[in-house]
């Protein structure tokens, strides 16, 4: 593992020694890279490189447009465009320099707001060919309608979408829409003949995030 500081973010690199092995990019919690890497290794047979990025302001840098907060606290900043520009313009090129050969494909994965970012980013840029939105915040105001209008712009090679089976029973009425939103997002790509998997995991939003992420990334690697 190599730890770097790029664009004011902490980047944990787990490079594969196999030329052309896929690269998985994850917007993660600080210091989560090692545990995530090991969790994916435990379920995936394919070789891969992992880049885990920490030091993010999740409410600001992973949200696509400003929106009132769904619960107590400040509103969402909506500056994902700025972070996506830094990710594809600075962070990703620096990561690619540390690999023996350009990956066959690059995937973007994330949990919660990072899962929202993954689903949004693949519609904006060509840098990522596969994505996993794991218990993604797809309830985000306006997102599913935006995705319906933009999902055809850049069709990915493979899509994974999951949600906990209790997430749709949240007390907050906005967050209760998450299961329906996740099913709709998966259906959009299925209708476009993109290999897609929707998975309903047991538990609420905070149940086994590493295990859920490993399953999602493992399916992208399958």
Summarize this, please?
With 222 residues, the protein is of the alpha/beta class.
Oligomer type:
single chain
The general outline is globular
Question: Please, what is the CATH homologous superfamily?
Answer: Alpha/Beta hydrolase fold, catalytic domain
What structural class do you assign from the helix and strand content? alpha/beta
Helical fraction equals 25-40%
Along the chain, the helix and strand elements come as: EEEHEHHEHEHEHEH
Number of strands: 8
Biggest pleated-sheet summary: 8 strands, mixed
Q: What is the first-to-last residue Cα distance?
A: 23 Å
Radius of gyration: 16 Å
Unreliable parts:
none
CATH architecture: 3-Layer(aba) Sandwich
The fraction of residues in strands falls at: 15-25%
- At CATH level 3, the topology is Rossmann fold
Q: Number of folding domains?
A: 1
Describe this structure as you would to a colleague.
The structure is a single chain. The chain has 222 residues and is an alpha/beta fold. Strands 1-2-4-3-5-6-7-8 form an 8-stranded mixed sheet, sandwiched between helices. Helix 1 (33-43) crosses helix 7 (209-221). The chain has 7 helices and 8 strands. The model has no long low-confidence stretch (mean pLDDT 94). The chain is globular, with a radius of gyration of 16 Å. The chain has a single domain, classed as Alpha/Beta hydrolase fold, catalytic domain (Rossmann fold, 3-Layer(aba) Sandwich), CATH 3.40.50.
